[in-house]
């Protein structure tokens, strides 16, 4: 598309969690190899300016003219902090997700030594020394239990959503282990496997390889406990008329889901709305899936909600095309109905600015007085700022108080 791009990365390397995911479905390419290839492409493209260890400190302006203040070297390892400004026409947000971190004692986590999370397990596999046996925490592993939906599809907790990628990631991990250690027995304690689409093939492959799938009821989760030095997982199995199944295992892997990024700074600076699940919200899931209510700002990948790698890549492509369409147009269509303030009566209390869902109101100095000024390109004329203004200093074009009063009068007579 030929646009110039500033790629702002808060970490020291681009790629987010992808590099740590191991083999990506359908199990041919490794995440780290994908990141490596993309990194080389980015470095060799002179239209892309890559800024690592960098955070957004401030963002002003609107579509076509965003002024962003950046803070570099946030890790503080290479040189003292420095700041610089960039001016861009549109912003694409792809801040990713965090893995759910189980509470102490949740399925024995941090209380029983051999209970770990799926990301920790992937890390162990990645850094493992070659050998005939799989050794974890000085223990030879013969039996593994994966417990699914940890931090997702919660009955009691807040995370009601399915994290979409973790069933496939757990099954892929099991197949990776079996490839090297065919005698390891794997038990999958699931709430019902959701390997949608072609990922079903991996589910079938794992079943054929001897993995045992147990489906526990939503409200009766498995219990992990330790007895005489042995770790046991007990659950009722829906697939065999709620028969109680107990497995003695050497390792329990908690298949943890996705939660929104805990660093809320980008969302609050750009005033991006969030959904009930706390991920960023698009305007319409089907009709405008990557646009936000802030003109010129799109969202992509898992900052918007749980997605697999392919789904994230597709949403990023879609957001990139939309972003290009913002800057390539060269002109904007403004809303014919917008709000404006009366600078004589406004005393800047900030109430309207807080109420505006489009970040259209800012505090400005007009003839030596601080007042609310409404950005004509960002205002959507929604009227949310009007009722919160105690001094009635805001009006809408074509719907001024006088005009509305006249309409009511005519209707009443
Ligand atoms: S709410 Fe009214 S008085 Fe307060 S800053 Fe906004 S326009 Fe000014
Ligand atoms: S009319 Fe709506 S979009 Fe415009 S300034 Fe008021 S609250 Fe913001």
TrEMBL record:
Name all 4Fe-4S ferredoxin-type domain ranges.
337-366, 370-399
Q: Which Gene3D superfamilies match?
A: 3.30.70.20
Q: Does the keyword 4Fe-4S apply?
A: yes
Say if the entry is tagged with keyword Iron.
yes
Any one GO MF term held by the record is: 4 iron, 4 sulfur cluster binding
Required cofactor(s) = FAD
What PROSITE patterns does this protein map onto? 4FE4S_FER_1, 4FE4S_FER_2
Mind telling me which Pfam families this protein's record contains?
Fer4_7 (PF12838)
In the record, the note on similarity to other proteins reads: Belongs to the HdrA family.
Record-given protein name: 4Fe-4S ferredoxin-type domain-containing protein
């Amino acid at each position: 598309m030929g646009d110039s791009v500033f790629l702002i990365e808060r970490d020291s390397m681009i790629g987010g969690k992808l590099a740590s995911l191991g083999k990506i479905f359908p199990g041919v390419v490794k995440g780290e190899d994908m990141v490596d290839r993309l990194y080389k492409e980015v470095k060799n493209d002179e239209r892309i300016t890559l800024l690592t260890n960098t955070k957004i400190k401030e963002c002003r302006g609107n579509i076509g003219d965003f002024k962003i203040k950046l803070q570099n070297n946030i890790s503080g390892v290479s040189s003292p902090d420095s700041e610089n400004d960039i001016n861009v026409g549109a912003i694409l947000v792809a801040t990713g997700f965090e893995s759910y971190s189980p509470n102490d004692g949740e399925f024995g986590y941090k209380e029983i030594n051999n209970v770990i999370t799926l990301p920790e397990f992937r890390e162990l596999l990645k850094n493992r020394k070659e050998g005939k046996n799989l050794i974890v925490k000085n223990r030879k592993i013969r039996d593994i239990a994966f417990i699914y939906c940890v931090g997702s599809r919660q009955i009691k907790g807040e995370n009601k959503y399915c994290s979409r990628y973790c069933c496939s990631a757990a099954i892929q991990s099991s197949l990776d282990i079996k490839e090297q250690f065919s005698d390891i027995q794997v038990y999958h304690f699931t709430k019902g496997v959701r390997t949608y689409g072609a990922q079903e093939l991996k589910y079938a492959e794992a079943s054929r390889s001897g993995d045992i799938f147990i489906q526990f009821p939503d409200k009766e989760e498995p219990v992990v406990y330790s007895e005489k030095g042995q770790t046991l997982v007990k659950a009722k199995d829906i697939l065999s008329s709620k028969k109680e199944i107990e497995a003695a295992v050497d390792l329990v892997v908690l298949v943890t889901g996705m939660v929104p990024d805990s660093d809320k700074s980008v969302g609050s600076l750009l005033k991006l709305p969030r959904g009930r699940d706390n991920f960023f919200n698009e305007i319409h899931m089907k009709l405008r899936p990557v646009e936000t209510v802030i003109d010129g700002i799109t969202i992509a990948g898992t900052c918007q909600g749980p997605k697999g790698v392919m789904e994230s890549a597709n949403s990023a492509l879609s957001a990139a095309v939309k972003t290009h369409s913002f800057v390539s147009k060269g002109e904007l269509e403004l809303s014919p109905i917008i709000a404006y303030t009366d600078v004589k009566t406004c005393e800047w209390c900030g109430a309207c600015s807080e109420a505006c869902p489009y970040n259209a109101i800012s505090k400005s100095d007009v003839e030596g007085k601080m007042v609310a000024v409404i950005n004509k390109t960002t205002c959507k004329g929604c009227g949310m700022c009007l009722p919160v203004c105690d001094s009635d200093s805001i009006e809408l074009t074509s719907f001024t108080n006088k005009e509305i009063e006249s309409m009511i009068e005519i209707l009443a007579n």
